[in-house]
Specification:
Elements (H helix, E strand, L loop, with lengths): L9 H4 L35 E4 L3 E5 L5 E5 L4 E5 L1 H4 L8 E8 L4 E8 L2 E7 L7 H4 E7 L7 E4 L3 E6 L7 E6 H5 L5 E5 L28 E7 L1 H4 L14 E7 L6 E3 L1
Antiparallel strand pairs: 1-2, 2-3, 3-4, 5-6, 6-7, 7-8, 9-10, 10-11, 11-12, 13-14, 14-15
Length: 258
């Protein structure tokens, strides 16, 4: 299936029991040629991820090998994982790349043993990442298939940790940049792993003055068949499936469902 890009009106989302009608995209997108990673790099599955700003595109394969392009898709730099992770140990995969234009910084996170490594750029220029990014280790114990969103004051990581449901990890962004941070945790119970990943990715905000500074948001699929009899297994699309938006308090790890 092709990806579907839709917009939701935040005011309508906050009205409980209201049918939310997705809006068409408010901008246009240009299709460009996909530049594949080298599948000979002991890299299966390749699972490349990308992020971009107005000048650069960063692409990282599952094995951590990084390519940096300009917007004409010329490769400006190519780095093996070992050349830019700054001696981090136990890094596996599952990279996420975010550029936050208000900060003029890149945020990159990867799965490691018992936690995550995050790389935060000093400027909007990602070239020579071994020197231009600061490394942070985020210890959490059990961890898998994380997703990340960067908000005005906080970084939100949603950690898929099994039957207990997605784990909320909220960190004050300035404290993280200054490497003097604490992790606020919580869980979304009853939304656990079942024969696949039921992830609740954070909603990425860009220049969003209407988003409160003390709130962060995640979105997730609520599967009717997980909690009601009469369905065949976890039959997505049967019953009253829902897309739920979670408004999370990053100071307590608690949440409300929109």
């Amino acid at each position: 299936h092709s990806p579907l890009l839709v917009y939701f009106d935040r005011t309508e989302i906050q009205k409980k029991n209201t049918r939310i009608v997705p809006q068409p995209p408010k901008t246009s997108f240009k299709e460009f040629t996909y530049i594949a990673h080298d599948h000979t790099e002991n890299n299966s599955p390749s699972d490349p991820v990308e992020g971009s700003n107005t000048e650069y595109i960063i692409s990282i394969a599952n094995n951590g090998n990084m390519r940096i392009f300009d917007h004409d898709l010329n490769i400006l730099e190519y780095h093996l994982e070992s050349q830019w992770i700054q001696g981090a140990t136990g890094i596996c995969c599952d990279w996420i790349i975010t550029y936050k234009p208000e900060d003029e910084r890149w945020y990159i996170i990867g799965l490691a043993n018992s936690g995550f490594y995050m790389y935060i750029s000093k400027t909007s220029n990602p070239l020579n990442p071994g020197a231009t990014f600061d490394k942070r280790y985020i210890p959490v114990g059990q961890c898998d298939y994380q997703k990340m969103g960067v908000f005005s004051d906080y970084v939100l990581i949603m950690n898929q940790i099994g039957s207990s449901g997605p784990q909320i990890l909220a960190i004050n962004k300035n404290d993280l940049i200054n490497d003097n941070f604490q992790i606020v945790t919580g869980n979304i119970p009853g939304q656990g792993y079942f024969g696949g990943f039921q992830i609740h990715p954070p909603i990425q905000t860009i220049n969003s003055p209407n988003i409160p500074n003390n709130k962060v948001y995640a979105i997730g699929h609520w599967d009717y068949c997980l909690y009601n009899s009469g369905c065949s297994g976890n039959a997505w699309g049967f019953g009253n499936d829902q897309i739920r938006i979670y408004e999370i308090n990053p100071n307590s790890g608690s949440y409300t469902t929109q």
